[in-house]
Structures are given as C-alpha cells and as structure tokens.
Amino acid sequence: MAVISSHNIYKLRLIVSEITTSLPLPLPLILLISHKILQFSFAEASMDLLPLILLISHTILQFSLAEASMESELGPKIAQKIFEGEGGFSYSWLSAEFPILSQAKVGAGKLVLNPLGLALPHYADSSKVAIVLQGKGRIGIIFPKASEQKVVEIEEGDIIPVPLAAVSWWFNDGDSKLIVIFLGDTSKAHSPGDFTYFLLAGAKGIFTGFSNNFVSGACDLDEEDTNKLVNSQSGVLIIKLKEGTNMPQPSKADKQEVVFNIEATLPDVYVENGGKLVVLSREKFPLLEEVGLSVKHVRLDANAMFAPEFSSDPAVQVIYIVEGSGRVEVVGIDSESVLNTTVKDGDLFVVPIVFVVSTVAGNEGMEWFSMTTSTQPFFKYLVGKTSLWKTLSPQVLQVTLNLTTEEAEVFSSKMNKNPILIPPPM
Q: What does pTM read for this prediction?
C-alpha cells in the first residue's frame, strides 16, 4: 500500500478547507477549483489519495451545476413573442424555457395592442390579473356565471381580475400602444406554467374544430351561411379594425366593480427617498376573490432597498420589473442564495413559497408589480419596525444571535429606525 505523505495531506486539507469555506461560489470559479484539484491529483497525489480527490471534484461539480440550475430556474427571464400581426403582439413566458413556472403552477404573458388593435374574444384555463402598464382602451368581459358582458374603459395603472373561463376581448381605442401584463395561477391549467387560450372566432376559433354539419345543425344555418360564419374571419388572436368601426361604449358604473386603479390609491407605505408600496388584496378590491390572487405595486427611489421579506401564506410571488433596474437576491432552503443578479425593465422572476427576497434599486430607481397566489397575503420582514426580530423577546434575541446585552439593544434600536423601504445612506 502506498504511503500518503504528510505534505500531500496538508495540501489536500488546505484545498478542502478553501472550498468548504468559500461555497457557494460563482460557477466559473468552482470549475477552476475543481480543475486545480484534478491537476494536483495527477501530479502529486498517491493512488490512495486520488479517488478521494476525484470524489471531492465530482461533488463540487454537482453542487455548482445544481446552484447554477436553481439560479437560472428562478429567473430573470424576458417574454417570448408568440404572435405578431398588424393589430399587435402577444408574448408569453413559456414553462418549457422557464421550468419554475410549471413547478410553482403560475404563469405570465403580455399583450401589446397597436391603435385599433383588437384581441378577439377568448377565454383561458387559468385565473389571472391583468395590469395595464401603458396606454388606454376598452375591454368587454363576461364572467363565468354571468349572462351579459360588461364593457369598461381601461388605462395605465388599472388592475382587472380575469377568472378562469371568463370570456374577454381587448381593444385599443387610443392613439398609442396599449400594453397589458397578465400574471396568474395555472394550478388548474391543462399545462401548469402556461396559459392556454380558446378563441371564439378567427382562423383558430372554436367553430373551426367542428364539422360544418355540426355547426349548421347547432346554429340552424344553411351550408353557405355556415361557411361564412366559420371562415369569414381569417385573423388569428389579434386583428386591426378599420377606422370608425363601431364598438360597444364603456360603462362607468361597471368600471367601479370590474377595475381598480392602483395609481389612484394612497400608498400603504411611503418613505421619503425610499419609495412607496401598495398592496391590493380582496379587502380593498373584492373581485380579487374570484381569481384567488393579490397584487403588489412597488416604486423604489434611486439606490433604495426593499427589506428582505417572505410570504407567511403558502403563496408564490411572481415579480415583473416595469421600469428601471437594480439587484435582486433570493435566499431559499438551507439559507442558500438561489438568485443574486441584476434585473431590468421587462424581466420576470419567481419567488417560491417562504423563500426570502430583497431588492435594491439602481441609480434611476426601480418599479415593479407582483402577483401573489393569495387573496389576502401577509408578509413578514427580517428588518424594520415590523421585523420578526422585534417580536422576539430580548433574551431570545440575545442568545439566538449570541450577542451581549448591549449589542442586542443596539440591534433592536436599529430595527426601530428602519422602515421596510430603506433609503440609501446619506
């Protein structure tokens, strides 16, 4: 049996110590360390030591790939264009490219309508909230248990709950683009992680799937009229109407029931140089009960921080960056960093159940909307006046953090001063 020199053992211990105290590391650095171990094993190690070093190297590679996979899995991702026409565009975050969507059973999409663009009447297999990011227009919606459509005007900042199987159409009657983002729960969807749409009309309309005999019999039409009914609309999903086309007029009374403008409401939290926060739950907007979701709107001022938080409901949070840029960090199981990256407008990422998330805005500030799969979400914070640390008794806080009485008092006093929207240092 070969003898392992004390020199080799010492070098191996140094390598292992360096690795175990440095993890988690960026993937390129971990791969470099792994490569160095292999170089050392072949150059200097005895045959008895070689299998151990190879095992360590293999373990590090597995760990690094798992960490890289988790970070990539949570995002951020931009939407993929799935339709383009004269009337506008449709985008989606596809679970095939963003697997956390199917795992968390949530989905996201975006509709961009050009002036006179019309998204044909349709319904989906998922409940969603629609958030108007830009422009104005009107929509018609028939709720699942209703027998009449409601037509309402929409504008920037409007939140519209769209329940599973609700039929809706969307029309841009303005002179600039109408942009709407959809965030929803896909737990009942045919393909969890994706919204599946069913069109009432057009080249992909429901009637095109039936034989003409069935359509003729159901609608009591002759062959010529049946062909016209099924095939006259050649557009798919989004079309452009002619100038002057008559469309239903919106109802102000219905808008109060169907739409909530989050821009017009007072913030739940406002901090000078920090930003503002609005949480829209079923308490403020009862119609959210129909979709089982809630919405949060955050505007962070330049270089301000949103305190680390997690949802104490069994809820997933989907966050879409509307404007600006910054950094986001998410901490998950075993206190591992699962996301630590830069985000910018157009990015979307997912925060799994009870994972902790925190963000810091860049020099221009940052704005985002988030959807939570709970109608009455409750968030807990790790810093600030309402932090978990404030609810612990001083004795427990002291022994938990292994602090002196004086140090614990300083920490607690800092919590009293910090809001959940933290302005940058002066």
A: 0.82
